[in-house]
Amino acid sequence: MPQSMRALVAGQVGEPADVLRLESRPVPTPEAGQALIRVKAAPIHASDLHVLRGRYGFSPDFPAVGGHMECVGRIEALSPDTEGLEGVEGVEGLEVGARVVVAAVPAVPGPHVAGTWQEYLVADTRRLLSVPDHLSDSSACQLAVNPLTALLLVTRELDVQPGEWLLQTAAGSTVGRLVIQLSRHLGIRTINVVRRRGAVEEIKAFGGDEVICTEDEDLLQRVAETAGPAGVRKAIDCVAGPVGAQVSQALAPGGEVVVYGALSTHRQTDPAALTIPLQARSVIYETKVVRGFWLNRWFGTASPEDALHALSQVRSLVADEVLSIPQGRPFPLERFTEAIALAETPAHDAKPLFVFEDGRDEDGLDEDDRGNDYR
User: Fold this and answer.
1) Tens digits of per-residue pLDDT, 351-366?
2) What residues have CB less than 8 Å from 159, skipping those under 6 apart?
3) I need a surface site. Which of 29, 69, 169, 194 has the fewest CB within 10 A?
4) Which domains does the chain have, with CATH numbers?
5) Closest among 106, 94, 116 to 35, alpha carbons compared
């Protein structure tokens, strides 16, 4: 095992392309209950970049290794201390050499797991999920955030039942598409909100039952026409702002909307500007509920057993092709500025992934051979 490794480190808060530097760091040593993971692939999420900008729900101590959400790798060293984990779903097969997903999402409150944008990291064994070899690195390294968010929103946060309507904004986003796939699997009907007319047919072809385009349609009117007198009682929103407020207003009395993002203020750094202008009459007299969901806080309150069970469900849904995760585009750490630029490009075709390989990888492809279809 090497004594040093490459890591992408931010020295201070700021624009990621400006504050990140490629550094050499000592390979960390696992303590009791931890495993040393040799990272294979790690995605670049918008939240990773917001953390570096200082506009996320927590801030690490700088200098800090970038990436805080998820990755896939192999166990290089494993602590023998796994007391209390016997029989826990997903823990089986955790041994040196095993291929695992690291759910590196920092628990709030709780300890910060090491950043994923480095060649080696240590992680709590209770945050590791074994994954089958037939699941691509690209899919495996994206299991613990977007698919898990979709599953939790639909089945746990809102408990949407077969035959019910589910209203969602940003239907063309990664989570939005996963919600559509999961809803079709569960027999749930979806009303999908998009902001561009060009996305309507695309979402319908993808499986969305109804699509509303805010560019030229009235959201409240279209929801009423679609759902009829019974209306819609459950919704998820990741836009916030006026659109999020309209979603709340469109719900039937007693309805509930869970807000998990604020895309309408994607570049906003002033916390006071992150708002949802709700109508007091609608909230009071129609007893509607608007509440938030943050995956980090869920990890902080869920037991390790419950978290691994939910991740195991996601693993099964992806392995069984119920949920499809688009293949990512690989980048070595040296090309981080290009990778970040792609992550910030609207409607980019593939999520950028940092990949860590020596020579030829396990599927026999050189780095230059993989192109945009990393498997």
Assistant:
1) 999 999 753 344 433 4
2) none
3) 29
4) 4-143+297-370 (3.90.180.10), 146-293 (3.40.50.720)
5) 94
